[in-house]
From TrEMBL:
Region described as Disordered: 1169-1247
Molecular-function GO terms, alphabetical: chromatin binding; RNA polymerase II general transcription initiation factor activity; transcription cis-regulatory region binding
Lineage of source species: Eukaryota, Metazoa, Chordata, Craniata, Vertebrata
Designated name of the protein: Transcription initiation factor TFIID subunit 2
Biased composition (Basic residues): 1191-1218
Assigned protein family: Belongs to the TAF2 family.
Domain of life: Eukaryota
Amino acid sequence: MQRVNNSFQGSILQDPHLKLLYDPPIQAGKWASNFPLSFGNLSSFLQVYICQDTYFFLLFLLSTTNQVVCINNINFQRRSVVGHVELTIFPTVANLNRIKLNSKQCRIYRVRVNDLEAAFIYNDPTLEVCHHESKQRNLNYFSNAYAAAVSAVDPDAGNGELCIKVPSELRKHVDELKVLKVHINFSLDQPKGGLHFVVPNVEGSLAERGAHVFSCGYQNSTRFWFPCVDSYSELCTWKLEYTVDATMVAVSNGDLVETVYTHDMRKKTFHYMLAIPTAASNISLAIGPFEILVDPYMHEVTHFCLPQLLPLLKHTTSYLHEVFEFYEEILTCRYPYSCFKTVFVDEAYVEVAAYASMSIFSTNLLHSAMIIDETPLTRRCLAQALAQQFFGCFISRMSWSDEWVLKGISGYIYGLWMKKTFGVNEYRHWIKEELDKIVLYELKTGGVLLHPIFGGGKEKDNPASHLHFSIKHPHTLSWEYYTMFQCKAHLVMRLIDNRISMEFMLQVFNKLLSLASTASSQKFQSHMWSQMLVSTSGFLKSISNVSGKDIQPLIKQWVDQSGVVKFYGSFAFNRKRNVLELEIKQDYTSPGTQKYVGPLKVTVQELDGSFNHTLQIEENSLKHDIPCHSKSRRNKKKKIPLMNGEEVDMDLSAMDADSPLLWIRIDPDMSVLRKVEFEQADFMWQYQLRYERDVVAQEESILALQKFPTPASRLALTDILEQEQCFYRVRIMACFCLAKIANFMVSTWTGPPAMKSLFTRMFCCKSCPNIVKTNNFMNFQSYFLQKTMPVAMALLRDVHNLCPKEVLTFILDLIKYNDNRKNKFSDNYYRAELIDALANSVTPAVSVNNEARTLDNLNPDVRLILEEITRFLNMEKLLPSYRHTITVSCLNAIRVLQKNGHVPSDPAVFKSYAEYGHFVDIRIAALEAVVDYTKVDRSYEELQWLLNMVQNDPVPYIRHKILNMLTKNPPFTKNMESPLCNEALVDQLWKLMNSGTSHDWRLRCGAVDLYFTLFGLSRPSCLPLPELGLVLNLKEKKAVLNPTIIPEVGASGPEPPNNPNNLGQIVGFQSIEDYHLTKETAAIPLPHQQGLKRKADTPLGSPLEPGQILEKTEDSKVKLKIRFSNSQEEEEIDMDTVHDSQAFISHHLNMLERPSTPGKEQSSLELMNVLPMPGPPQPTFTKESGSSKHSEHHHHHHHEHKKKKKKHKHKHKHKHKHDSKEKEKEPFTFSNSPASGRSIRSPSLSD
């Protein structure tokens, strides 16, 4: 990046399209004061970077101001879509000669710019990440190649899969910076991502069958279903048109302007307008025979569901208006869009997907008023979706490194809604749950970085060197990492709240929304739309302006670096000085940890009350003296004040006679992302459990008491179970802790089994204690406790490590006498938990004389369990429960019986339940059992069956879950010897992640996770050593990282991965009327240019730099003119080297027998014939099978080129080897482009 000279500076700033004021001049450190929030749209206009005394301009070449999307034909039987788009583009510089857009898997038929036919190239390096490295199987290599491939089509860097050449007739038009209209005709045939078709295989019309289609994907995936600039920072207004069958409804973003029927009334067109500037990534679509419900409380809100689900929809969405009111109240800002639509679809990609003015939900969230357990979960999903409407859809991000701001704010306001709706206890429990998750993940993987800042490409500068994937792009992230990323973003936003107060936080959010709202109304000043983008620096500046506080240390600690804090604490009481001597140590050398320096709150509960102390953490080991306010006076009876002001009587007989301390807590407000291991006596944990009113403190004490199996601990836990005022989640935790303590104390335990007498007293008939009362779930806390206690009791074991007969009989009686006739709520979750309890009671089988396991010689207790499971499964066939919870529990129980050796281990029953057609929860439970069987029995056959499902199952969520389950419960790991680890499996998984998952980012990253779990980062140990030839190739610098990454001519791009010395590649061109490979589109880059982003000061279309293409001199270029018989057109090609022309001729000779590619100018009649039936991708040919003519001409061309090579001396530094026999044997494959059918890649230029 070069310093901008004054003349260039002046011309830019005087440009009427930019409207930028440059007075006063920018100085180092002053950028925020000149530009309060953010300056310029990342993908259009200018972004200012200030580095010491130098200011730089990052220049992008065009700005999209409006886009029309017209889908005029959707075929459910063929799963195909036909349509066109029109983009209104403003050039921001003269000499713009190419336009780059994003488009994956679309077949492009025709491109026009201002009604002139335009040539275009399609190139997608992510289709196949690693080329021609058949022996390469290490994950480091793949991750570098994948990151380079994603960078090569990253819209935030001005790149894209589709490159359109601006017709030369428009050169003057462009130089005058006048608007361009780009019109693209395209089709989709059986899309593998982006759009998901659901067509049930039953009788009836499409509407009766509930056939529907909807957009889906991970992050910016709109490019999968129409050409666009698929960036969150490129905003424009939208006009959306969808022509569908008369029985169908099309739901999309913005306002429905009109619905127009055709003359025969068989089809209708829905016209939507979205006047608020929106990123293409936030555009969505759902088409199906939806039933429509206008929200009775808010008429601008409309809900859509599949046929016959309207009653469930009414109940599920009846609460949504209260979420609207809450968000508008706390943000003091109206909902930004004029309407909101919720669509519930089957086979959803994720449970909640938020888009501009609409959200797509899983239909599995719908429920009736009879269902208790699903209600809070669905309400949480609705609230999450609505929070993202404000921050995520309306306000978008400047770049990927600013994603944490949006996820953090939406998560933060969602948390405020949770606190108001479910109470402080539920909110604090959720915060602790989220904190525990992120701590566990970071300590396991090495850290989550919220704001990636990359150095010069060196390994030591890579902030994510501990990970097996790149964090430079969202599309290379592990799904689990991204989930934890969102979790950490919200927690950090909460830390900022702790620092500046909630009042200031909400003022900051209001300011962001107000600026964005003002900007969105500027219809004809698109440069103002940058206020609708949030950046990290702009967000921090807003905080500084509103609160006047400097939070840079906090940001540096938690945003700019990864890791959590690990505290170890212990104490001693000094009686003479009446001082608490507290010692706190940190571990900051383990993976995923960091050193914390700053304030730390410690709460000490004494006899005279609760006292807060703030310690300053500076050194690794901190010893701190805290003076006590009380003196030991245990003989005096006096009520003890608690933190919340309540005063209670305590039995102080258990405490230390010389100490006034009751309990100590470190960081009780969770104001640090930390893990705390604190040592205090068991009686202190018991006091904390009984008398501390904070649920987090109670949960911490329950976890600690597991290490103290004493009668006093048993009594404390029992007291908590009996306290109806205690939070139900704490009581649930106490159940399982009590079961563990009882098992430790089994030899000294007296009385009935733990919890049995309590359950009998609470839920059974007084006259007959073994018969449970008729169900009454009106008290939800009692309901959750009634569900949980039998599950915990089933974990009890006697001295022989068997479940006590009394407990099993008790659970069987609960099932036998369960009566739900008078209950207004469903008992399906309760019955499912009773089945889980039966499974928990199972212990390993003891075989006598190694007799075979059969159903005839079953243990009597196990036979009873199996009979109950069978009866439940049969009942489910007749009367299915909500979400088939009973079937799920039964399948889990059968697998437990198999693992414990009671029934033969056979995956057949699970495989039948895992087939497509069953409810998704059943399938996942069955697949978990098959994954477990694969691991325990080391079954290669079942592993292959699972991987086959990953490749072929119709439901994207199921494919993702299988990979996720195999990663979490792998059949083997990189450090294990296993018969399953072989070369065939390595090749299969490599192929899966390399090319088999190119249309689903999430699935590809899941395959990478699995590969890492099984084989690690380096070459799998089961593979033979690489051949010497490959090493020689590497030494000769002929290893090709990804030949399909086409570097920008006259530009540099993203940093190349560590080991490639890359060569360019010839690509197939598609144009109208004639095909030209000019110096702009056929330049062969030098090795160091492979996969490089263009420099900011070298715009697309600018004059070429020396070294990037050879000059037009007599002895540096070969000019060829070729006439092809099938097209009767001449092609004039300027070739940099004879080898380039050789590859090009070879390509065309192979193309002679192939049909011509759509893209040539066609009559309207021909276009009508072609559009509805886009052809499938062409098959892959090898050099031997697909190139009969090439072999005849090869020798002649080779000889001719050798002569030319003597005449025109070759000035490139890289070497070529013509007579390699091994190279002749390599297959020369033609990968058919979805866009043109003619995207060619060659093994390497040395061929």
